[in-house]
Amino acid sequence: MPDVTGxxxxxxxxxxxxxxxxxxxxxxxxxADVVLYDYLVNPLILAHARPKAExxxxxxxxxxRIMPQQEINAHLVRHARAGRTVVRLKGGDPIVxxxxxxETAALVEAGVPYEIVPGITAALAVGSxxxxxxxxxxAASAVALVTGQERRGKPSELNYKALAAFPGTLVFYMGVTxxxxxxxxxxxxxxxxxxxxxxxxxxxxxxQVTISCTLARVADEIAERKLRPPALVVVGSVAATQVxxxxxxxxxxxGVRVLVTRAAGQAETLAATLSDLGADVPVQPAIEIGPPxxxxxxxxxxxxxEQFDWIxxxxxxxxxxxxxxxxxxxxARALGAVKLAAIGPASAEELARHxxxxxxxxxxxxxxxxxxxxxxxxxxxxxxxxxxASRGREVLAEELTAAGGSxxxxxxxxxxxxxxxxxxxxEQLRAGEIDWITVTSSAIARSLAQLFGxxxxxxxLASISPVTxxxxxxxxxxxxxxxxxxxxxxxVDAILHAQREA
Length: 502
Ligand code: SAH
Known about the structure:
The structure is a single chain. Helix content is 33%, strand content 19%. The protein has helices spanning 23-31, 69-81, 100-110, 122-129, 160-165, 179-188, 218-224, 268-276, 296-303, 316-329, 345-353, 367-376, 395-402, 423-430, 442-452, 466-474, 488-501, and strands at 7-12, 34-37, 54-57, 85-90, 114-117, 143-147, 169-173, 196-201, 209-214, 231-235, 258-259, 287-290, 310-313, 339-342, 383-389, 406-417, 436-439, 460-463, 481-482. It is elongated. It has 502 residues and is α/β, with parallel strands linked by helices. The chain folds into four domains: 7-120, Cobalt-precorrin-4 Transmethylase, domain 1; 124-241, Methyltransferase, Cobalt-precorrin-4 Transmethylase, Domain 2; 258-286 and 418-501, Rossmann fold, CATH 3.40.50; 289-417, Rossmann fold, CATH 3.40.50. The longest helix has 14 residues, at 316-329. The mean pLDDT is 93. The termini are far apart. Bound molecules: S-adenosyl-L-homocysteine (SAH).
């Protein structure tokens, strides 16, 4: 017996929507050393793997550059024998039209332990996301999952007579390029040419499309609309269902592409809110957040925190960076009686996450308002510690000093412009395929101008606040929507509002 310590997980990644991965699938990804994935898998799912996990794309079905099955099997065995935890990630379910038997046979032969984690197969996604019930009372008492494509070079094994007589719904996988062939055979075998059909392309993804027609029209619809895989074709009376069909595609931002530009690690909430509303949400961080060049000033301030009356945080990043540093050398008692000010709800929430309550949060989330709120608390003679980024506005320090406060500033994190734009995002913007770009700070506005220049005008700009809008204006860009509450929620509302007007 070989000394096998690794294990292979055959994991179903679901049909496309990254939220349809199972909890077990996510666990497996989180512990994987190497992930071998099919092109059908939504790359967003790979984010659950550790950054240092090796990610290997096995190529595209139906194309020459797909890795031959034997080679895939060999990779699985080799990695496992080297003691690695391997995730073999497949689109949909790993057992449905997915060569699982070949892979498990190779693993059994090599004595490699494995586990199979089911996923939501495309047909089930069509049932939910395209609202076509696969079974229905007497009209559809059974469902057949059928391949529209026999293996290359092999004669058809399908009995179309039996399929034509099947008492229920037929769902054809891999039937796009071969539609002319299988629809003709099905009709020749006795299935009525006017049987309702539905072609569902990219189900559960932000560009899902459903086309309703008859069985006889399927191939023509595909040709006329130049439809490319992946698509499923549902054949049967249920394909004509109209009621309850549109929940997914009638969400307010469906079909709208919104670029999120916040730093990595902070884009998720905004991106999730927008995609829940139906938007397609590429992420292009415009700035990168990192540790300060020098921690010493922060450490020195932390060592004598008792000398300050206020600690003032001008961003959630600042809260995270400063408190993270503080708790390395001291504990919560270091904060003693010092008061805490947060520029807005995001910073206040970050404080709350550390079991701290902000004493002051201004009604309007900008430096001027925070300075004013602090002045109302009587700033004269008070000692303020301002926790800030490597760049940013000086307003707060100036106003507090002017009000008679003594102000010390420490840089708790650096904020740098992203050096290059993602190629796909740049291409989409060039082609006018991005509807909105969210601009959530002046630093982001400046970085976007550097990254995209004139092409930034190909999309509508949504600004989080008048300060950010003013920066965009100075840079020569128009603002199409501005948040009235200067928060991520406010920004989303502004986009929703503008879309409704459009
Ligand atoms: N194991 C996968 C199927 C792989 S075969 C599963 O269980 O879903 C590939 C075929 O699946 C595609 O040709 C297409 O017919 C179908 N498919 C996969 N994802 C799809 C999607 N999001 N929308 C429509 N069809 C999809």
